[in-house]
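Margin note from the TA: students keep mixing up input and output lines. Inputs are the sequences; the output is the structure of the whole complex. Example:
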Amino acid sequence: MDYYKLNTCESCFVNNDLFKKITKDQADILSYIKNCNTYKKGDTIYTEGSRISGIYCLNKGIIKHYKTGNDGKEQIIRFSKTGDIFGYRSVLAGEPACTTAKVVEDGSVCFIPAAHFLKLIKENSDFAVSVMKLSCKELGDANQYILDIAQKNVKERLAEILLLLNDNFGTDNNGNLNIFLTREELAGLVGTATESVIRLLSEFKKNKLIKLDKRKIKLLDIKKLKHISQSYY
Amino acid sequence: MDYYKLNTCESCFVNNDLFKKITKDQADILSYIKNCNTYKKGDTIYTEGSRISGIYCLNKGIIKHYKTGNDGKEQIIRFSKTGDIFGYRSVLAGEPACTTAKVVEDGSVCFIPAAHFLKLIKENSDFAVSVMKLSCKELGDANQYILDIAQKNVKERLAEILLLLNDNFGTDNNGNLNIFLTREELAGLVGTATESVIRLLSEFKKNKLIKLDKRKIKLLDIKKLKHISQSYY
DNA sequence: CGGGCAGTTGACCCCGCTCAAGCGCGGTGG
DNA sequence: CCACCGCGCTTGAGCGGGGTCAACTGCCCG
């Protein structure tokens, strides 16, 4: 857990649409105030139920945000990727974190103290509207997730999740998804048991919908996967 | 569908914490611009997928917000009660409505055009922060909902929903919940089949946890209901 | 009186969870 | 260097929660 302290992280401004809204002066001040650390796979940024004293901006890497059920099972709510901010829900709602943020792929994270984040919001209404837009989109996604988990069966949900990962993380030169999850994490995302994910993945593989190589997943037939995911009978 | 047009709705300012943030001048202008209608049970304010041209403020009554699954089944996402605003998610995210808003209990609704709502946000940063706070709380609730539907069984969820309705709507003099839902709506809220809700309600009744009289529900043993809802084994 | 809708109950059975066993692989220590 | 361990993955067997279908009732309303 020996995090390497970085002094600069200009790339945040490049990667993140949000920070394009702030003025040159505001950016300069922010550069002084913010605080960057590198993180390794498995590191926890913050834990569900803890108080957060600021917001985080993901410079590089992948973060999973999950809640833990009473029996200890992880339910993954969403991921953050390069350029995303997180932790702002807790800061703005004035509540403890409702999820745990854990590193899935090594990267670096910038920290912006809550007071300064709120100052930016009050000073710059364009920035404020962008943050609102973000939280409202997230809310729309969460609502869709509720419908899916409540009404779709596991096969439909798994197909949908694979397509979603494809949209969010894209593929490498060989067509493999740019995110590597354990079967257990996939199960925590779909909201099912690990064994169910394994069985369905091998069914998809047998039907030539996907190709599997350890944790590398390649989508072969997106059209059919969409068909499955949307419960067209 | 002949909505009665009201000219005033000052009570919005009284009921709604949000609008306490705006100045006297802003309130006066808002009073001119906004537009109030009464609605009857079953009326639809807007439909999932449609574009919304402003936000709504519920003066009186109860609104259910639901998504419709591919098989036509309603999944209720949340309710609005007196003083709540809704539709802002769609306006701020710049997306079509992600839910249908339908009247559960007669009441009146004020409409504020999107342009004016956005103007208020830009002019008044306190108001902006309040709106953010609202959307972030809603997001926290949605995340919790995802966990519950994914990991709890139907009995646990039904107990939790009853407690939630109790918290949100309270009870009348006789201790009955101040919201009347059909069994089908309850099922759409819990995320299960109507028959399952009926069976579990009569089980709860048999075990003296609740009292039933048509759609009136009275919680008799909140402690035990909490115990059931939290999956303490 | 008849039609329709909400509610209820019973029967059936399938999806998906759980438990258990076995495999492959990488890391660690003797 | 090999033996061992533990973790992630896989597969099979079993079963129970809960979804579906059907039938019946009570009630409201035309």
